[in-house]
Specification:
The complex is a heterodimer of chains A (389) and B (274). Chain A has 389 residues and is an alpha+beta fold. Chain A has three domains: 168 residues, Reverse transcriptase/Diguanylate cyclase domain (Alpha-Beta Plaits); 57 residues, Orthogonal Bundle (DNA polymerase, domain 1); 142 residues, 2-Layer Sandwich (Dna Ligase, domain 1), CATH 3.30.1490. Chain A has 15 helices and twelve strands. In chain A, helix 4 crosses helix 6 and helix 13 crosses helix 14. By secondary structure, chain B is α/β, with parallel strands linked by helices. An eight-stranded parallel β-barrel of chain B has the order 2-3-4-5-6-7-8-9. The longest helix of chain B is centred in the C-terminal third of the chain and has 18 residues. The chains are: A alpha+beta (389), B alpha/beta (274). Chains A and B meet through helix 5, helix 6 and strand 8 of A and helix 5 of B.
């Protein structure tokens, strides 16, 4: 089997890097990107300087401010980041169609296996790309090269914020062995903590355990840990998005809420946005997840699924409400909620042969189509279901 | 018997006054060398170095130009090669082509990273970019770089013609640093092919191929797509190599025309000619 050549390009602190391109006076200044108008805003991104002071992604802004008082706070400009991401992709796409990108985070995986006759050896492609991106976009990505996505991602983490790392094919396990467990992608804090309880600190120590030993504390996750600790990852580079592509929307309440109707209204609005995105991209979602953050900081996540998937707002709303009722089990106020739609499938254009849809379903479909047409003309928020108000 | 084996691996030694030479290629880990038949079908990257070492006694490490050399990676690599096998390591690009980082820190890292190789290190190749002209600043930088690498066997490859000066050769001689002899396309502005030996310990030759059109394409597959004919190599031997061999104690010759495995093919051809 041909060894794969996977390049991972990563513009570290992407939002900050893009903001600095817009305003050069921000260079070398500690920057925190966070929505300031929300009462309990969370850090979206931060510069290396702010990171050095202890600021982390997802941290509450008031806390981050205490850690880094000299930081300049900027509002996130998602459109700008998406545009910059598009520009980055446009440079890379010439080298391979097998390109997997994050939403607006400066991460790209490229599978350049078999392109050597066109573009030369893979390290040369990565080097030239970095040079091109720096020259033409002003962004300076870290690059790494390995035989799979997992190892290339770890290699990037090793050298960030600047640099490059090549891990030769066959050297994956040796490369990972001395590294701390926290560098292994996909491990939760809880799992790292559990491994520490077993006195395991390094990836190489984890790799010494066999499948049966790992299955005892980790059950189904044992298989992943077994492969990952040995640097084995067969997941393909998926063009068009990340392997775990999902559409998600987040809402932070200005004040904590306890009213069911208010929460359902917000969820309906989020359903509209996700439903529209699904229809625009010709996809259907099979699972809707609702994540609630309670005012005491605890998070509850529950899902509801529909086999075959749907892109209809009415169906999506039903799934979201089911997931909500499963998630909201405590009599505690809600601070924020996230609606996510995943297990996406391409939408089939073929009509069903035998199962006839009810009049109501047909009406709903027509209504959604009409709403999309209005929103396309007058803006996404111009028309909503009454339940969203 | 050992002489026959050594001949097969590319060590060519004459009984007269000419010094022995080691012939190899610039890099060894190319997937297309499997397609082209140099490596057996199905050869995977980890198996390439042992197979290469069966054919040649020395290799020029290219990947050390792309990324900072790391001791642990070097240790893993040399474990795959026989003890007698030699490496010439390129200096990292952050010390030659892209000097936008703290070069002193980079140099320190390089010196640390190359430590495991020391016993099998034939030379450190300092390849300077075509836009590295002989200016006051560049002369000063090169002098500092050579000072910083003191103690290592060094070879300097100039790409810009402005360095073809007697004073440069005299300084390299004073420092016992090898001037790299380059065979490339005859284009204006490029450093010429010279049979000057500035360090009697060893001379260092790089055959880039003579693809004039591909040279400035920015695409390695075009730049190094060239195959030397037996006549060209014979002529080169007569015109330059004999002279170089009579001035030094050892020679290293590397073919950089890696496209479609022309480099190992040409290296084997030159070995035959010698």
């Amino acid at each position: 089997m041909l060894d794969r050549s996977i390049i991972h390009l990563n513009v570290t602190d992407f939002a900050v890097a893009v903001e600095r391109l817009q305003d050069s006076s921000l260079k070398r200044m500690p920057i925190i990107v966070a929505p300031q108008q929300a009462a309990r805003a969370l850090v979206y991104d931060m510069s290396e300087e702010a990171y050095g002071d202890g600021v982390r992604k997802g941290m509450r802004l008031d806390r981050a401010r205490r850690y880094c008082r000299r930081a300049r706070i900027l509002m996130p400009r998602h459109k700008l980041y998406r545009k910059a991401m598009g520009a980055l992709v446009s440079k890379v796409i010439h080298y391979t169609p097998l390109l997997e990108q994050g939403e607006e985070d400066g991460h790209l995986f490229m599978d350049v296996t078999g392109t050597h006759r066109l573009f030369g050896p893979a390290p040369d492609i990565a080097w030239r790309l970095r040079k091109q991106v720096l020259k033409e976009l002003g962004l300076d990505p870290v690059w790494s090269l390995a035989s799979n996505k997992l190892v290339s991602k770890v290699a990037s983490r090793m050298v960030r914020p600047l640099g490059e790392y090549i891990v030769g094919a066959g050297e994956e396990a040796e490369f990972l062995a001395p590294l701390p467990l926290s560098l292994l992608p996909g491990l939760s804090c809880k799992e790292v903590g559990l491994l520490r309880d077993f006195n395991l600190e390094r990836i190489g120590q984890l790799a010494q355990l066999n499948r049966e030993q790992l299955a005892v504390p980790f059950r189904g996750r044992g298989e992943y840990l077994y492969d990952a600790s040995r640097g084995q990852d067969r997941t393909p580079v998926l063009p068009g998005g990340t392997a775990d592509t999902k559409f998600s929307r987040e809402y932070h309440f200005e004040g904590d809420v306890v009213e069911q109707r208010e929460l359902q209204g917000v969820l309906t609005s989020l359903v509209h946005e996700i439903g529209r995105q699904l229809r625009q991209e010709g996809k259907v979602g099979q699972r809707i997840g609702v994540s609630l953050t309670y005012s005491d900081g605890r998070v509850a996540v529950r899902q509801a699924t529909q086999a075959g998937g749907t892109d209809n707002d009415f169906h999506l709303r039903q799934l979201a409400l089911t997931a909500l009722s499963r998630a909201w089990q405590r009599r505690i106020r809600i601070r924020s909620c996230v609606l996510a739609c995943d297990r996406l499938l391409p939408r089939s254009r073929q009509q069903t042969l035998f199962v006839l849809r009810s009049c109501r379903e047909l009406q709903q479909e027509k209504m959604v189509t009409a709403m999309d047409a209005v929103c396309a003309r007058f803006g996404s928020g111009s028309l909503r279901l009454g339940t969203a108000l | 018997m050992s002489e026959v084996v050594e001949q097969k691996r590319g060590v060519v030694e004459r009984k007269d006054t000419l010094c022995p030479v080691l012939i190899g290629t610039s890099g060894y880990s190319y997937t297309e060398w499997v397609d082209s038949g140099f490596y057996p079908r199905g050869t995977r990257a980890p198996q390439m170095l042992p197979l290469y070492a069966d054919a040649f006694p020395i290799v020029e490490l290219n990947y050390t130009w792309y990324q900072m050399i790391r001791a642990e990676a070097i240790s893993r690599m040399i474990a795959k090669a026989p003890d007698s096998f030699l490496f010439a390591a390129k200096l990292t690009r952050t010390l030659t082509h892209e000097r936008d980082r703290d070069w002193r820190q980079e140099l320190k890292q390089y010196r640390e990273g190359i430590k495991p190789l020391q016993r099998q290190l034939a030379a450190i190749l300092i390849q300077l970019p075509p836009n590295f002209e002989r200016t006051r600043n560049n002369r000063y930088y090169l002098a500092q770089l050579l000072d910083g690498l003191q103690g290592f066997p060094l070879a300097v490859e100039f790409r810009h013609v402005s360095w073809a000066k007697d004073s440069v050769f005299a300084e390299l001689q004073r420092r016992q640093v090898t001037l790299v002899t380059v065979d490339g396309p005859s284009l204006p502005g490029l450093f010429p092919c010279l049979d000057i030996v500035t360090n009697p310990s060893f001379f260092f030759v790089r055959f880039h191929g003579r693809n004039c059109q591909g040279w400035k394409s920015g695409n390695m597959q075009k730049k190094f797509d060239y195959s030397y004919s037996a006549e060209e190599l014979q002529e080169w031997n007569g015109r330059y190599l004999s002279s170089l061999r009579s001035q030094a104690n050892r020679g290293m010759l590397f073919f950089n025309n890696h496209v479609r495995a022309q480099a190992p093919e040409n290296a084997a051809l030159l070995r035959e000619i010698l």
